[in-house]
Amino acid sequence: MAKRQQCPPDYVAVTALCALSAVVGNKIRVCPKQHDNWAIVPNLWGAVVGGPASSKSPAMGAAMAPLKDMERAAWRVYEQEKADYEAALKLATIEEKQANDNAKRLNKKGDKEGALEALKSVEKPEEPTRQRLIVNDATIEKLGELLNENPNGLLLVRDELAGWLSKLSGEEGQGDRAFYLECYDGDGRYTFDRIGRGTVDIESTTLAIIGGIQPARIAPLIRGATRGTDDDGLIQRVQLAVWPDIPSRFKWHDAPPDKDIFRAYADCFHRLAALPREGKRARFNDEAQSLFIEWMEELQAEARSGDLHPVIAAHLVKMPKTVSALSLIFELIETGETSISGKSLAMALELADYLRSHSERLYSIVSNSAIKAAKLLLKRQDKLPSPFTPRQIQQKGWSGLSDKDEVYDALTVLLDHHQIKREAVPNTGGRPSIRFHWNTGAM
Known about the structure:
Layout (H helix, E strand, L loop, with lengths): L1 H4 L3 H16 L3 E4 L13 E5 L6 H8 L1 H44 L3 H9 L13 E2 L4 H10 L4 E5 L2 H9 L4 H12 L4 E5 L3 E5 L4 E7 L1 H13 L12 E3 L16 H15 L6 E5 L1 H18 L6 H7 L2 H16 L4 E2 L1 H38 L10 H7 L7 H13 L3 E8 L2 E9 L5
Parallel strand pairs: 1-9, 2-7, 2-8, 3-4, 4-7, 9-10
Antiparallel strand pairs: 5-6, 11-12
């Protein structure tokens, strides 16, 4: 797929894994400990990061082809069931009228029990529900209804994740944000109380997510997490985020897809979809358990060391779910068993190391762009008054300094390196205004 689409294989692989995790849903939970009741729902959140010419969307579409085929087949079944239901409903309406007439006649004769039995004799057909696997854009209330109809879970697919993430970052999106945080855990209930809709109980909040996003669009979200304004761990839950380098050369490739490989790939989805919802628990075998314990202790020691940025530490402590989910998916594909082998766990750990390198690249967006902007300010200091205000920098519209947050980050870098001095000028009856002076002694 990557060769045909001329895109990094990361895009295809991450999309495939998130889609497969949605097919498994909450049918099986992973228990990383042998005796503890800690159980993980293996739904995964991922993002493919790249510019507009990186072929993100075609890669995602190709990887999700089996899932789309399954949903189309389910839609055809639903259409037939719906037609049968509507016919049965018409017949039930006729029978209901007859039963009402019969009940009236019996009631007139004083046979109330017979009248009640006549009314109860009509069986109305059960309305069919359409099996869904993918959802693209829905309110959280509608998404909740879809999750009730599809209790195994769903895959949220957004061609552009930026809009969804930005909405959740706004003040009006905090309610939605809380709901999606529950959906990541995947094993809880959620209740909506809405005027008009009344009370809606969501029995199973299991949601996998995959989408594309451009680096420039994810930077504000990373900034919110690093500053602590959005520090509830939402961005760290996007564990399968990849930002690979795009080849500078495009090489024309025109060959038919390998049907045998695609059939084998699609078979993975069908086999995992056929797993029954029996509340099974998957556990590591002895070899895998020892390996997981060793990895977990090293991970926690690093996360608790105090040497990492809090955002990175928060990302690390969410990796056990990712590793557990990946190891289960690999085992189900290879053997169909719920005893996770050392081989499957080793594959998951290798992938986790690779994913971590991408997460560190993502979290460095803010610091790297701030350093670049700070260097630009140093270079153009003669174009600013002395002293100067952040507003005067923003009005220049310089690249990487047109946003107040970008200006703030650049000034923080310059302050840290003693290139500027901060001055608070008192204002009568208000907050002091902030101005900055160049520290000529540091030049």
